[in-house]
Hints:
Layout lengths: L1 E3 L2 E3 L7 H10 L1 E5 L4 E6 L3 H6 L13 E8 L5 E9 L3 E6 L4 H12 L4 E4 L3 E7 L3 H8 L11 E6 L2 E6 L8 E7 L3 H9 L4 E3 L2 H10 L41 H10 L3 E8 L10 E3 L5 E11 L4 E9 L8 E6 L2 E8 L12
Amino acid sequence: xxxxxxxxxxxxxxxGIIKEHAHTRAAAGLFDVSHMGQVRLSGPGAAAALESLVxxxxxxxxxxxxxxxxxTNEQGGILDDLMVxxxxxxxxxVVNAAGKEQDLRHLRAQLADRCTIEPLGExxxxxxxxxxAGQVLARLAPAAAxxxxxxVARIEIAGAPCLVxxxxxxxxxxxxxxxxxxQAVALARRLLAQPEVAPVGLGARDSLRLEAxxxxxxxxxxAATTPVEADLxxxxxxxxxxxxxxxxxxxxxxxxxxxxxxxxxxxxxxxRPEGRVPVREGAELVDGTSRTVGRVTSGxxxxxxxxxxxxxxVETASARAGTALQATVRGQPIAVEVVNLPFVPHRYYRR
Length: 351
């Protein structure tokens, strides 16, 4: 157990990180992610209000669907990344643990006169992830079987009224389940009683998301990094782009539009170090002339890949897959190759 964002969090359970990682890839892992922030926005102007803070299409988000979004600043940097779910009569946001108080202040400062903002502090959050997650949850809540990737629904699970999304942070099929906090332990025990399910901690959560090529806020993305630099242009909705129906209107829109049109000086890429030595956050990346061209932002061992993997930012000229670079680890050069992300193919359930 370690302290994290004001919570005591499990790094690993007795089976260990490698086995937890492998179990999630093969069956179903249960993660307690109750440290994440949950916020409800309601009122007739909620969608339009939220659009003024994010470069994504919230007004066009259908009821029963969820979308990845980004809070941006005036320089186009990423204040936080989040999920936005439309439950029909309200929007529910899931934001990062370390930024939830900042995000709540941001929402209240910008939107308090346009919609109702309600932190859902009385709710816990469980993530059931892996290729057998669907059959497990359908056993306890048959309605879950009808859900596809990025669908959301209000579903009763083992007697608890839950907000369920078919999504997650591992690259696998799975669900995130918002449950009243006083019923979370009972639901977790019910899920863990299923033969396919094992508890999984923060260590495997990080190795799973890294293999899936997913960003960790404060490491791979931050307030000085734009969505285009972070290779997250896919998250910038067509309706909000320069030629879209509701172009701009969010912080940093002009910067991001310019980068979409003209490119950026650096990009986030995948990296495969040669050999078995992990290349971790902070390691410098140099080209064949020993010139520094970038830096590693996440790195470690990929259990499914069977070797070290990393992500980082490099100059655009060095961002092409197959480019040979070197990382400096404890004063020693390690050969690395730029590769396409993700390291392990996503297996989201799309039917």
